[in-house]
Amino acid sequence: MSDVSPLRSNRATGSIARWGRRPETGLSALLFVIVTAGWEIIVRLLDVSSLVISPPSAIALALWGNLGSARFYYHAGITLWEILAGFVIGSLVGLVIGIAIGQWKILEKTVYPYVVALQTVPKVAIAPMIIIWFGYGLASKIVITALIVFFPVVVNCIAGMEAASTQQIEMLMSFTASRWQIFRMVKLQTALPYIFAGLDVAIVLAVIGAIVGEFIGSQAGLGNLLLQKNFSMDTAGSFAILIVLSVMGIVLHKLMTALKRRVVFWMEPEATIATEAT
Amino acid sequence: MISVTGLNKTYATRAGAPVFALSDVNLEIAQGEFVTVVGPSGCGKTTLLKILAGILQKSSGSILVNGTPIERPTRQLGVVFQEALLLPWRNVLQNIMVPVEIQGLDRSTFEASARQLLRLVGLSGFEQKYPRELSGGMQQRVGIARALVHDPDFLLMDEPFGALDAMTREQMNLELLDIWAQKRKTVLLITHSIAEAVFLADRIVVMSPRPGRIVDIIDVDLPRPRDLDMINSDAFGTYVRRVRGHFGSRGMDA
Hints:
The complex is a heterodimer. Chain A is an all-alpha fold. Chain A is built from 13 helices and no strands. Chain A folds into two domains: 4-45; 62-267, MetI-like fold (Orthogonal Bundle), CATH 1.10.3720. The two termini of chain A are 23 Å apart.
């Protein structure tokens, strides 16, 4: 990329130019500072009990303490493992079922209604039974997470495969393509942006799934730790864990977005349009 | 050669009365011939091409390609569509290789011919570009190369230059004639431009709508190779008037 567009060269002229072009980043940081400072001041001025709500400084201290303790990493590791395993299993099953329904119309009439029926059952309501079936260990949390993750992936997969262009499919057919080749060459690629949208929703839901599972019955994990902090009225400690969970969710979401950019590279309108050569 | 006898296509409609898209179409196309089909929209010319390509079922009649009946797509045909229909996730070379992959042909042999075709359509060096980096004319050139890569006997073209501007279109017409002269394919090209139909053809098939049928077949006796100056010649004008006569007399928008 030898040609530097005017927009690109502006970016290099310094932070003032950047502020001018992207004021929202600065404003967003400013908002955070104002809210945090306001929170701190109000809690201190009104002398609110730390059992009700802790000042940000106490939460920061609790967070700092957590980050220095091996026990905390053990709990975080367990929750992260539940999230990832549940996410991978749930999305794989979702992909397989979504692709199958997208490929064979008959399945949309026969299997899909049951998928929807399963989705209408609140996962939180069946979580206690899942704990009974799969025990207090990791397995039950992974199952609950997978159940929550599964649906958005299925729905988006089906929608994506249906979005495939009839004209592109006819083009492949004219070159004698089989059903399977049409899937491999057009339907899957058309579905990918949709699938990634589903996975993005799913990874955030996975965090919720793991915590719900741990709340209902567990021996370890951040959800378990959060319950302990709640019982001991450690509000600052609870908030510190919530922050860690939130960061986990954000990082996973960002990773998913980055992966999407790499896989669905043709959706990026970055490239310059070549001019007619004639 | 392609021979079409008594071809009919009717569409069932919700209202009940069937629509006759094609009615008793008879057509013989000889090996190496360049035939254009011209007619107003709704005359069934795209329907005809889709049936020939095997992606649409006929209602009755017979189509023989080199003596064998056509019921489904065959490897003897290469199709160029109204839009280039390149796959945006494949680069130019990978797009041209689509028929080769579908038909399970030897990749290295046909990659060489893909590169050769790319040179023929004037896009050498564009192998690794993606469709979004190409102009409309360049995309359709890739579409033509893709239709030729598996070395079919017949090239079916459905208004291939309809989406291009007039200047690019004339240029593409000249290039297409060059390709045809070099590759010796039998071409059936559908167009709604009378001038394009006359300029390219050995024979012009004139179609008329409701029901879609052939109203005239005109042999074009203009010398080859053709150039753009011919468009202003009297002989060219005579052919154009003859084609237009069919539409003017019926008061249709050609």
